[in-house]
Each structure stands twice: as C-alpha cells, then as structure tokens.
Amino acid sequence: MHMNVEPANFCRKPGEQNKIRKKSRHELHEYTRKAKLHRVFHKINSCYLVKFVAAMLYFCGMQILDGKTVSQAVKDALKTKVSILKEEGKKTPHLAAVLIGNNGASETYVASKVKSCEEVGFKSTLIRLDENISEDILVKTIEQLNNDADVDGILVQLPLPKQVSEEKVISLIHPDKDVDGFHPMSIGKMVQGLPTFIPATPYGILLMLEHYKIVTAGKHAVVIGRSNIVGRPISILLNRNAYPGNCTVTVCHSHTPNLKELCLQADIIVAALGKPEFLKADMVKEGTVVIDVGITRVPDTSKKSGFAIKGDVDFAQVSHKCSYITPVPGGVGLMTIAALLMNTYNACTHKHPN
Ligand code: GUN
Fold this sequence. Notes:
By secondary structure, this protein is an alpha/beta fold.
C-alpha cells in the first residue's frame, strides 16, 4: 500500500537536521519527566489526595439540601406503594383540591399538587370556585367532599377571599381527611405528640432533615415567623422528643427586638416570615443549618414571566457561612408537595386497610 507521508527527518536547509535531533531529545526527556510525574500523581490521587480533598470539602464546605432529589425519592417510594395497592385490588388514594379565585401563586401551587398526584398514581379532583363565592357555597362544597367516600384527602388552598372565614373552612374539613393538618384537632394532636397529619411544609422540612441525617438533638433552633402553616408547627416539631427534634427552640416574630442576636446563637434557622432575602450573612454564625421557607414573587423584567421567586434568605451571602442550606426554588417548596402526598396516602390506607 502506498502512503504519501513525509519522512520524519525530512529537512530543507543544511544544519536543520541537528536542531531537530536536539529538539527530539529534549522532547523525549520532557515526555519521560511528565510521565513520571503523572505516575506519582496517579498514585497519590488514588490513595490520599482524593480522600483528603473530599474530607476537606465535607468538613469545611456547605451542602445544598436538595428538595428535588429528596422529593423525588419520596414520590418514587409512593409510586411503588400505590402500584402495590392497585395490584392487591385496594383503594387508590384520592386528593380533592379546592382553588378559589385566580391568585397566580395559588394556581401554580395547586397545579403542581395535582400534577404530582398523577405522577405517583393518585386520583385527584380539582374544584375551581369563583373569587366572589359565598361562604355558604364553599361550606356545601366541603360537606360534599367530607361525605364522598372516594375522597381521602381535602385541601382548600389558602389564602381565601375576604368574605370567607379561614377558621370556619378549616374546621369544617373532616379531621380524617385533613391532609393539610390545619384542623384544630390535628394541631392539638401534633402538640401532644399523638399520631396525626402534620402540616405539609413542616413535615417536608422534617423529611429533608432526616434524609440528610442532620443532627438536631441539643441544637438551638431559631424559627423566624409564627404562622399556623409553618412557624408555629415547625417550632413544636423541632422541640418534640423525637428525631428530628429535641431542639431548644426560639420563635421570633415582627415584635422580637433582638432578632439578629438570637439568630447569631442559632445552630438551625428556619426562615418563614415571607420577606424576600431578609436573612443576611451578618445574622448567621459559621456552620448554621439554614432552612428557607420563603417563596415570594418579586418583579423581574429579565424573566419571561415578569417575576422572580425569592426566598427569605439572601442565598448569595448566607450560603458561604452555612453547613447546609435549602435553595429557593428547589428546596422546601418541593418537599411540601411530597409531604402532602404522604399525608394523602396515609389518609387512604388508614381508612381502607384492606
Ligand atoms: N397556602 C400556602 N401554603 C399552603 C398549604 O400548605 N396548604 C394550603 N391549603 N394552602 C397553602
């Protein structure tokens, strides 16, 4: 076979041959040196270096508490459980969601809840009601859902329009179907440490802490916010004699004068006050676990939607000081849905064991 290749020592000018020989010797020497170095590094790499760097990152670095991964793990487990229920001819869990009006954020949350039901094989029913609905009609709708034997869980998306009493609506949902865990009976049982539905966002936070095996016993947890949905229940849950729990808990709110001072003493901070980027780096000590519950839409012309989602924590500043932190979006929000699905599954299997 003929190959038209120039010989390696081909040269055009006299004397160039020697230069090339010298250059080749130099290159060979360089090559051998690099190969030796490479072998040495490879040895170090495979035994000490990698382990050392991993250990340094582990001990010094911050870890993201990834709601996407953890919520997917919860959903995968539920999907398997639901397929077993179906194989055994048992009842499929059924969530009924009531959405009133056209609040953009509520629309997004409810759409995600319904979609997640589909993903794990639950049945779901979405009931949309007009913003101007009377309290009477809403009461009748809830009563119908309470009496519907196929519905296992009921959620009425909050906030409600002004003409409707939130307290009345929540108390009307049958405690056995209260998958939001907002009914006074559910809250009372939770406070006493009895088995019940735990509100979805605090439950999601507990699942996250558990997944990452974060030590909570003996830690000082500071909760910023005292809402019935997040702040108050998570303060009770972190304080209970269980894991995750056994924390010493301080609950801060809009009238707390020394908020920064208290935050600086915290090993765990749960920011649930609904003020975008409220928690700054100078309020956090090194190594704190930071749980960001905030989800606020702020105008942002660079986004197609016209808004950006911001948490209650200034992530860019605070993340450098934390041991663990939840991002927004992609943190607690996704866990809330996973926890709601868990509650719905439990409501179904508790009522229909066979
Ligand atoms: N609005 C904001 N969070 C929640 C929640 O967890 N459940 C309901 N029903 N409404 C909400």
